[in-house]
Amino acid sequence: MYKKFFTLFLIITVLAGCSKTAEEYLSEAKQSYDRKDYNNAVALYEKACNKESYSACKILADIYSKGEIIKKDNSTSQKLYGKALEYAKISCENKDKKACKLTAALYETGLGVEKNLDISDEYNVKACKLGEAYSCYYIARLKADDMEFFLKYMDKACSLQLADGCLTAGNTYLTGFNENMAIVPKNIDTGLDYINQACIINNQYCANLADIYISGEDVFQNYNQAVKYYETAINYYKSLCDKYDENNNACRNIDIIKAKFSVN
After folding, report:
1. Can you spell out the DSSP letters for 45-61?
2. Largest CA distance in the chain
3. What residues contact residue 189 under an 8 Å CB cut-off, 6+ apart?
4. How far is 114 from 112, CA to CA, in rounded Å?
5. Each residue of 160-182: pLDDT tens digit?
6. What is the CA radius of gyration of the chain?
7. Checking phi first, is residue 67 left (phi over 0); if not, alpha (psi -120 to 50) or beta?
8. What is the CA angle 19-64-89, rounded to 5?
9. Which long-range contacts link 81-84 to residues 24+ away (Cβ below 8 Å)?
10. Which of 55, 178, 183, 204 is the most exposed place for a label (fewest CB within 10 A)?
11. Measured CA angle at 169 (ends 167, 175), to 5 deg
């Protein structure tokens, strides 16, 4: 009786050990990769991919494509991109915004599937509607000839807390045109509102707001207001520049901003 119980216990233990989810394998794979234990990382990514994780299949495909930590194998890479696409499309239909975004990217690049920009656009729109901010931003810029479409999706990107979306919408209203020279009536107040949102979301863009107040071109020149926003931007860059290094973009940006006004 004891032997039967012990045997059953071992079977349950083994089965439990094999019941890891794709997300668990994915997490363990990342940990191994960060430790530079690449062989184990690849093995774990394979297990996650076999459990239909589109993220794991995509990462594994990239690994085989680059050939930096494992022998380059384009054939295996393309098969894995195909698997990533297959699983991502299913997840997208189940309202996974990141899966829709990946599906769009694979159709755009032609990885694991025949390149199709129209289908890519459709999936970016799906991703955007599900709340994927960068997809909104991307599709807005892609269709920038249509100002109504452009502003609709750029506003959506901004509302989803993508600072670049707010900044781009703001600059469009301030200048009266976008990057494709599509026209919109200038609206200084609306433009400032958008750029202020960009500043709140990402403090580096407070420098853009400061430039407007110090130039006095679209608003009354306000040096004190400009300094306030410049200092906010400087504090943001200081967090990325612990020790001065001229090769560090954050450090260089501090120098650029300081050159625009007197600062101790």
Report:
1. HHHHHHTT-HHHHHHHH
2. 90
3. none
4. 7
5. 999 999 999 999 999 999 999 99
6. 25
7. left
8. 60
9. 81/57, 81/106, 81/111, 81/112, 81/113, 82/112, 82/113, 83/49, 83/54, 83/57, 83/112, 84/49, 84/54, 84/55, 84/57, 84/58, 84/112
10. 183
11. 100
What phi and psi values does residue 72 have, to the nearest 5 degrees?
-65, 135
Angle at CA of residue 159, ends 157 and 163, nearest 5°: 60
Residue entry with tokens 């009786």: 1
d(CA 33, CA 56) in angstroms, rounded, equals 13
Q: Structure tokens of 165?
A: 């979306």
pLDDT in tens, 201-238: 999 999 999 999 999 888 999 999 999 999 999 999 99
Tokens at 196, concatenated: 């202020």
